[in-house]
Design a protein that fits this description.
With 155 residues, this protein is mainly α. It has two domains: 49 residues; 101 residues, no CATH class. The protein contains four helices and two strands; from the N terminus they run αββααα. A two-stranded antiparallel ribbon has the order 1-2. Strand 1 and strand 2 form a beta hairpin. The model has no long low-confidence stretch (mean pLDDT 82).
């Protein structure tokens, strides 16, 4: 009887150790999968919020930031607004480089860009719009400078 009791206790401990090993394996696997998912999610978040697509442009010694995003990253909410924002700013840059006297945009242009940035923030809250605001402000200031210079030249 003692042997039977000892044998059943021993087998019970062996089964318990096996269950513990399986539990430890499941926990480590779950942790590894969780970390992998967090890292992958962090990469997507970093693309949107970081300065990954931001470059510095210079015009007449003044620097400003530009953000241009590959079309493949513009899928999902806010994508059309981001594309609009970047294409309008690209047109302003083309006007900046093409002519040193004409306006780069109108009051309507600046209002539409600001409205577009608001929609981007609403539709894709993690998307960083600071570079867009910086670039638009630079073009707006350059337009004002050009208008003042033209007005001073007329007098």
């Amino acid at each position: 009887m003692k042997r039977l009791l000892l044998l059943s206790a021993f087998l019970g401990l062996a089964g318990s150790a096996s269950a513990q090993a399986n539990l430890i394996h499941a926990i480590s696997l779950g942790t590894r999968l969780g970390v992998d998912a967090a890292v992958a999610g962090g990469r997507k978040h970093r693309d949107a919020t970081s300065d990954r697509y931001v470059t510095t442009a210079t015009y007449r010694g003044d620097s400003y930031y530009q953000k241009r995003t590959p079309a493949s990253k513009l899928k999902g909410p806010g994508g059309p607004q981001i594309a609009y924002q970047e294409s309008t700013l690209q047109q302003c840059q083309a006007a900046l480089l093409a002519d040193s006297t004409s306006a780069l945009g109108t009051a309507e242009t600046w209002a539409m860009l600001e409205s577009s940035r608001g929609l981007i923030v609403r539709d894709r809250p993690s998307w960083n719009v600071d570079a867009y605001a910086d670039e638009a402000s630079f073009y707006q200031a350059e337009t004002i400078r050009r208008q003042r210079r033209a007005a001073a030249g007329k007098h």
